[in-house]
Design a protein that fits this description.
The protein is mainly beta. The strands form 2 sheets. The chain has a 7-stranded antiparallel β-sheet. Strands 4-5 form a two-stranded antiparallel sheet. Helix content is 14%, strand content 39%.
């Protein structure tokens, strides 16, 4: 009998800008870079009826996933999150989770059984991560990840930096 799926909140991910995190993906066959905005150093307007936000510095997070098997990106957004199959396990907006006893990892392992060098043990070393953004969800099955925070960078600068480190 399979164990029940369980979502465990990940606290090592820096929190996203909940209004416009603008998740951006740069991927090849071995690595996925997921970038998103943080909201820091915000000045609010003085009018009590109007909130004016000014982001004085751009803070961007890059989560690099190495040795991934699959990723998904897209629907649902925060307003339709209750339609996601993991909602009943506690999936909530603007959050980061690891899916324990993942049915997706099980599915990928079953699919790979036709490979002549298949090893079921290799699938026990991967993690299923799900991140719920404002307008989308990101899911990935990967062996490991690392997190880097960029301060005072544009998204373009970050993407150029990552591209240079990958391709010289």
């Amino acid at each position: 009998m399979t164990e029940e799926i369980k979502l465990v909140q990940l606290v090592d991910f820096p929190p996203m800008d909940t209004s416009s995190p603008m998740p951006t993906i740069l991927a090849d066959e071995s690595k996925v870079n997921l970038l998103y905005y943080l909201k820091e150093n915000i000045n609010y307007g003085n009018d009590s009826n109007v909130i004016v936000e000014e982001i004085t510095n751009q803070h961007i997070v890059n989560v690099s996933f190495d040795f991934y098997l699959q990723y998904k990106f897209g629907s649902p957004n925060d307003e339709a999150l209750n339609g996601h199959k993991y909602y009943k396990y506690g999936l909530s907006p603007y959050s980061f989770y690891e899916v324990h006893n993942s049915d997706l990892i099980d599915e990928l392992e079953r699919m790979n059984r036709v490979h002549p060098m298949h090893s079921a043990a290799a699938f026990s070393k991967v993690k299923h991560i799900i991140i719920s953004f404002h307008d989308s969800c990101f899911e990935i099955v990967a062996k490991k990840y690392s997190i880097k925070k960029y301060t005072d960078h544009s998204m373009k600068d970050c993407l150029e930096d990552i591209t240079k480190s990958l391709y010289g």
